Amino acid sequence: MDFLITEFRQYTDWLPNWMVSVGLLVGAVLIGLAIHRFAFGIFKRLVEDKDLFWRSLVSRGRRPMRLTVLTFTVSFAAAVAPLADRPAEIIRHVLLLGFILVLGWVAKTALHIWMTVYLRRFKLMRKTTFLPAPT
After folding, report:
1. pTM of the full predicted structure?
2. Contacting residues for 21 by C-beta, under 8 A, at least 6 apart
3. pLDDT digits (tens), the chain, 135 positions
4. How far is CA 16 from the centre of its chain?
5. Measured between alpha carbons, how far is 111 from 100 in angstroms, rounded to an integer?
6. How far apart are CA 63 and CA 19, in angstroms?
7. Are 73 and 37 in contact (CB under 8 A)?
């Protein structure tokens, strides 16, 4: 891995560091979106015949999955990009916050789907009144 990074930096040595960094980060976002599109299509096909929970989890997990893939691809690009110490530290902290956000978002979504599927088992009373019975 270090060999590839060294080769990349030697190959792009003639470009300004900011241009290489921006190019890497934009390329990482584009690659991340392509990976997400491909992986989401596979997941969607895998759960076509499954029960409601799995279908709902995949359909509602589209945006959290996109943020997860983008977080990983941008973190890889930030490790390779020739950034100064302070911008690299800021990017790493933002990516860490994004990862924590994704974990919470996925947990909330899965819990909401499970609760909805579980509560569908119970039938609600047809006539619900909150008034006291006549005396």
Report:
1. 0.74
2. 81, 82, 83
3. 677 777 777 787 888 888 888 899 999 999 999 999 999 999 999 998 888 878 888 888 889 899 999 999 999 888 888 888 898 889 889 999 989 999 999 899 889 888 887 877 766 655 555 566 666
4. 31
5. 17
6. 29
7. no
